[in-house]
Amino acid sequence: MDILETHAYDRKQRRNMSRALLFSLLPFFLSTALYFYLWTPDSPASITSAGVKSAPVLLLAAAVLSWNGGQSVLGVVGGLFFSAIGDCCLIWPELFLHGMGAFAVAHLLYSISFLSSRYANSSSSSWTRFLYLILVVVGVGFYIYLYPFLRKEPQPDVLTPAVGVYIFLITVMGVLAIRTRHTSTLLGSLIFMVSDVSLALQVFKVLAPMKHGSTIIMVTYYLAQLLIAVGDVKAVEDNDDFAKWKRS
After folding, report:
1. pTM surpassing 0.85?
2. Are 192 and 183 contacting, i.e. CB atoms less than 8 angstroms apart?
3. How far is it, in rounded angstroms, from Cα 130 to Cα 41?
4. Contacts of 167 (CB under 8 A, 6+ apart)
5. How far apart are CA 61 and CA 36, in angstroms?
6. Around 181, how many Cα atoms within 13 Å sit in the side-chain half-sphere?
7. Average pLDDT for residues 131-148, to the nearest whole number?
8. pLDDT tens for each residue of 88-127
């Protein structure tokens, strides 16, 4: 097989993979559509609401597990699972801290995944180091901005440091996502940060209630999780292709 035939075969394989991946994500898209169809922000908290809200992320976890097997359990699959726990907790306002803790674990697991060998990366350039700095400055600045609002919340002595730890973990995840140089992974992590910023601004009453505020939070949230999941599948696939190339 000559070089042109090899490239044509690789392109065909990638197209087939993309189609198969899209097919495996259909349950996620359908459950997300169902969530927005049934969703009423003012409805009372219930087990049903928690199930409908967490279903898309659990189905994403199942899709990644089917593609990557056990190697993503202590990574993106685990992060998606803890995100689903966080989704359920946030249905009930009194479980907000528990939900934030579950998402903190999710970000930690994502970070561990981004450090794994399947996310091939080269040494940091001056440009990527500049992006790291911007992300850290934004994270620190946002916490300083939130601080006076956190002190006005119930249990400020617990909430204030907890939010600080959470912002630290999601900032670390964003930095490590930049380091991977995987477009889907990077976009997913940054959009996740946007979703969390939107949530914090509303939950801690920094902004007046917005008409479509909850919709913005959930659209960016599901999109972020989708991109992180797809990025992990592609990272494993690219790593396997590289290993095959080295052996050939």
Report:
1. yes
2. no
3. 39
4. 139, 142, 143
5. 20
6. 11
7. 96
8. 999 999 999 999 999 999 999 999 999 988 886 655 678 8
Q: Tokens 């940091």 belong to which residue?
A: 124
Q: Which residues contact 159 (CB under 8 A, 6 or more apart)?
A: 97, 150, 153
| CA atoms within 13 A of residue 49's CA, in its CB half-sphere | 12
CA gap 40, 32 in Å, rounded? 14
Is-contact 61 84, C-beta < 8 A?
Answer: yes
Side-chain half-sphere exposure of 98, counting CA atoms within 13 A: 11
**SS3 call for 116:** coil
Q: What is the pLDDT of residues 161-189, one digit of tens each?
A: 999 999 999 999 999 999 988 999 999 99
- Residue 56 CA to residue 219 CA, distance in Å, equals 12
- With contact defined as beta carbons under 8 Å apart, do 54 and 87 qualify? yes
User: What is the Cα–Cα distance from 238 to 247, expressed in whole angstroms?
Assistant: 14
Cα gap 102→37, rounded to integer Å: 26
CB 189 within 8 A of CB 138: no
Which residues does 48 contact at the CB level (< 8 Å), separation at least 6?
A: none
Provide the residue type at 12 as one letter: K
How far is the C-alpha of 46 from the C-alpha of 182, rounded, in Å? 38
CA 145 to chain centre: 24
Q: Cα-flanking dihedrals φ and ψ of residue 141, to 5°? A: -60, -40
In angstroms, rounded to a whole number, what is the distance separating the alpha carbons of residues 199 and 195? 6
229 φ/ψ angles, rounded to the nearest 5 degrees: -65, -45
What is the rounded distance in angstroms from the CA atom of residue 245 to the CA atom of residue 239?
Answer: 10
Among all chains, which residue has been given the structure tokens 């091939």?
120
Which residues does 5 contact at the CB level (< 8 Å), separation at least 6?
none
